[in-house]
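Lab notebook page, bench 4
Experiment: in silico fold of construct C2
Operator: M.H.
Input chain length: 157 residues
Purpose: comparison with the prior construct
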Amino acid sequence: MKTFTLTTIILSALCAATSVQAAQNSFTAPPVAELSRAQVQAELAEARAAGTLQRGDQTYVPPSVSTRSRTEVKAELAAAIAAGTIQRGDQTYVPPSVSTLSRAEVNTDTAAWRKAGLADEWHGDATPDIYSTAYRQKLAYYQHLKTQQQADAHIAS
């Protein structure tokens, strides 16, 4: 009997606490705009007339106005074609780079990269964990080899 009474008291207390919590989390409606139906319809008509009405998930971007004449644009295009800097299709123009290293220096650097084990780290599509201890040790060894090569080249000259 005592167990039944104690269980009833505990359940009553839990139900009362739940209803108090539900009352505290009552819903409040968001504020409503103070525009009349006629005002909203007028704004909609203005947006349609101006061409600024967004449809779906599209964002309106107003048309750009050129500050150059057609003749200037054609002259610039002709100059870009002549210089070989025109982009075609979806390609991005990357100007050609000129290396300051000789072929022998590049081969020596590549050999040091491989000897340090970094070529194995960068093999395939996955990027290696450059913060791992193993990678950092290989990088430090590569930098040591490069410093040693530069010192040897300086002594030889």
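Observations: The chain is about 60% helix and 0% strand. The helical segments are 2-24, 37-50, 70-83, 103-115, 118-121, 133-156.
Next step: discuss at group meeting.
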